[in-house]
Amino acid sequence: MTRDVDLLITGGTVVTMDEERRLLPSGWVAISGNRIVAVGSGDAPDSVWRPKRRIDATGMVVMPGLVSCHGHACNSLVRGMAEDRPLHEWLTEVLWPAMSHAGPDEVYRGALLSAVEMLRSGVTCFADMWTEVPSTARAVEQVGLRALLAYNLRDFGDPEKTTVELGRAVRAWRECDGTGDGRVRVGLGPHSIYACTAGMLGRARELATEHGLLLQIHVSETRREFEQSVEQHGVSPIAYLERMGFLGPDVIAAHVVWLGDGDLETLKQREVSVAHCVASNLKLGSGIASVRDYRNAGVAVGVGTDGPASNNSLDILADLKIAALLHKGVGRVPKEMPAADVVAMATADGASVLGLGDELGRLAPGRLADLILVDATGAHFTPFHPHDPNQVYAHLVYSAKSTDVRTVVVDGRIRMLDGAFVGLDEKAIIEGAQRASSRILVAAGLLPASGH
Ligand SMILES: [Zn+2]
């Protein structure tokens, strides 16, 4: 009996990232609506499948779309403007002052630019933290990505701000959650323990529990944050959050570079997920997260690009290579962080971190159809031996470049086909972001008014 499907992708090396990490040297993926119907190896028999559309993936790796677990998309407007500084200076002297001039339109333009960059880099789902959630949601809808947008809560000790910001967060959630055909989910993003009062953190925890929202927070990013916490609260940032009952399986902790005694045990016990932002941590000189220890302890770890102003790129494949090399080198243990595990951090594990472990991150029947085709024919990808899984994973971590991502499918829809966007004017998006960036940087006094 033949079965109608919307899309059939054939002839590629299918890296499923499923429970058994099956790799199908000549495989196919059948998609109906926004779900994967079947995955198989060998020829997809015409007697079984009658697709509306076919994609020939010969010479390609077919794999789950990449997941970035932490970032600030609209910060692309400030890319390259705050260099060679530690986090605190970077935030208070450049990023926050510049972005305070970004209204809804500028945030939209910046998020749109990042969404396009992510699409080109094979990122199909990302976690974001910013205040103008509707603007970012609009960009996500337009580009066709999937996202978890956390309303960025900050009150800096001002109780009036606590109430106002929490009200805005709830409105953003009501307005945007479930938009983009369900691809946009909204959560809460209390910025950090140094930008939020205990009252705000406590209220965010209550709201998250009441409405089933995910919480994203920067935790123990710098030594300064760690030492300040010990000074002000008598304990590490993680112990402080634990003491107030904030931590739980719905918490995505970004960075987690500095740990105190017992903190790892707390993360494990509370089933907190970690977004490892390796490039950002290195660039801001924040330090190196003990990701090998987290993984060995069974803590879920995904990779986050962080914002484009602290990376300065959203190319998550580049970050995977940095992560693998760094942790092998620092630990002097070449066996650690095997390539297949590193790929998992940006696929199946990343999906789990974002609470989508049952829906995303693996190519398997019933899963959402988010997948990418990566060209395996370039000089830097050669030799390519699809019957050797270790080599395929190694190529994806160490040799692949974002420009190898040729085709991107999100929610069953083709958003990029052989390097060309479907229904998006990339040039206009880039020009719009360029103008928005000039506007806010001039307004903040970071660029001269003339010549822009
Ligand atoms: Zn961040």
Secondary structure elements and their pairing?
Blueprint: E1 3-15, E2 23-32, E3 35-41, E4 49-56, E5 60-64, E6 66-68, H1 87-99, H2 104-121, E7 123-130, H3 133-143, E8 146-153, H4 159-176, E9 184-190, H5 198-211, E10 215-219, H6 223-233, H7 237-243, E11 251-255, H8 263-269, E12 273-276, H9 278-283, H10 291-296, E13 301-303, H11 316-331, H12 339-345, H13 348-353, E14 371-375, H14 389-399, E15 405-410, E16 413-417, E17 420-421, H15 426-443
Parallel strand pairs: 1-4, 1-5, 6-7, 7-8, 8-9, 10-11, 11-12, 12-13
Antiparallel strand pairs: 1-2, 2-3, 5-14, 14-15, 15-16, 16-17
Helix pairs in contact: 2-3, 2-15, 4-5, 11-12, 12-14
This protein binds zinc ion (ZN).
The site of zinc ion (ZN) has 7 residues, from loops.
